[in-house]
Design goal:
Layout lengths: L1 H24 L13 E5 L3 H9 L18 H17 L1 E2 L2 H4 L13 E2 L1 H14 L7 E7 L5 E9 L2 E6 L2 E6 L6 E6 L7 E4 L12
Parallel strand pairs: 2-3
Antiparallel strand pairs: 1-9, 4-5, 4-8, 5-6, 6-7, 8-9
Length: about 210
C-alpha cells in the first residue's frame, strides 16, 4: 500500500505539474466529436474486476450513481490527453503471466509494470483524483484486430465516448479505434457490466 501510495503520488504530482500548462495551451486544443457507444443488456463481469474488488473492496462500492458525462472543454480534453500519455510513459508493459504468474490479474502498477487493464485502472484513479467523475470513467473490454482480448478506459463526455489506450498516446473517439467493443462498466453501478452493441463472446483474458 505504501508503494502504491508513492506511485500514485508521483503520477498525481506529474498531472498537477502538467496542469500548470493546460490553460496556456488550451487555445490551440481542438475538441473532437465522437458518438455514444450503443449499449446492450447486462452481461458477465470480468474475472479480473471481481478479483480486483476482493483486494480493493473500498474502491468497489455498489452505491448507485447517476450517469455523468465529462464536459469536454479544451482544458478537460487536454487533461485526458496528458494523463493518458503520462501513464503510458511511466509504466513498462509486461504480461500478467510474467508479472503476476496468472493469466489475467487486474491491479495498480505499483512497481511501474503492468498490462492493459493496469494502465486503465491507474488512468481512472488519477483522473478521479483530478476531479473527473467516476461514473464517466469506465473500464471496457474489447477485441483487437486479431481477435485477442484487450482492455481500455472509456471516457463518456458531452462530445461522445473516447478511449484512453495504453497502445496509443492519442485519446481517440471510440469508433476510430481498430477494436470490437464487447462490454464496459455501467455508469449507474461500477460492478454491473453491460454489452456494447450486438452481444458477442468476450475474450477469455485481456492481455495487451
Amino acid at each position: 500500500m505504501c508503494v502504491a501510495r508513492r506511485f500514485l503520488t508521483v503520477l498525481v504530482l506529474g498531472a498537477a505539474c502538467l496542469g500548470v500548462t493546460f490553460s496556456a495551451a488550451n487555445a490551440g486544443v481542438r475538441v473532437p466529436d465522437s458518438t455514444f457507444s450503443p449499449l446492450g443488456p447486462e452481461t458477465s463481469i470480468p474475472f479480473g474486476w471481481v478479483d480486483f474488488c476482493q483486494r480493493y473492496a473500498n474502491e468497489c462500492d455498489e452505491a448507485a450513481a447517476a450517469p455523468e458525462a465529462i464536459e469536454l472543454t479544451p482544458a478537460a480534453f487536454r487533461k485526458l490527453q496528458s494523463v493518458n500519455a503520462m501513464v503510458n510513459g511511466k509504466i513498462t508493459p509486461v504480461t500478467d503471466a510474467e508479472h503476476a504468474g496468472a493469466p489475467d490479474a487486474w491491479d495498480y502498477p505499483v512497481d511501474g509494470k503492468g498490462d492493459c487493464e493496469d494502465y486503465a485502472l491507474m488512468k481512472r484513479r488519477v483522473l478521479m483524483e483530478l476531479g473527473f467523475p467516476r461514473a464517466a470513467l469506465l473500464m471496457a473490454v474489447v477485441k483487437d484486430e486479431h481477435g485477442d482480448g484487450h482492455s481500455v478506459l472509456m471516457a463518456r463526455t458531452s462530445h461522445g465516448d473516447f478511449v484512453l489506450d495504453n497502445l496509443a498516446d492519442e485519446v481517440k473517439p471510440w469508433s476510430r479505434t481498430p477494436y470490437r467493443f464487447v462490454k464496459r462498466q455501467s455508469q449507474e453501478n461500477q460492478n454491473i457490466w453491460v454489452s456494447i452493441g450486438a452481444p458477442t463472446a468476450a475474450p477469455m483474458y485481456v492481455a495487451k
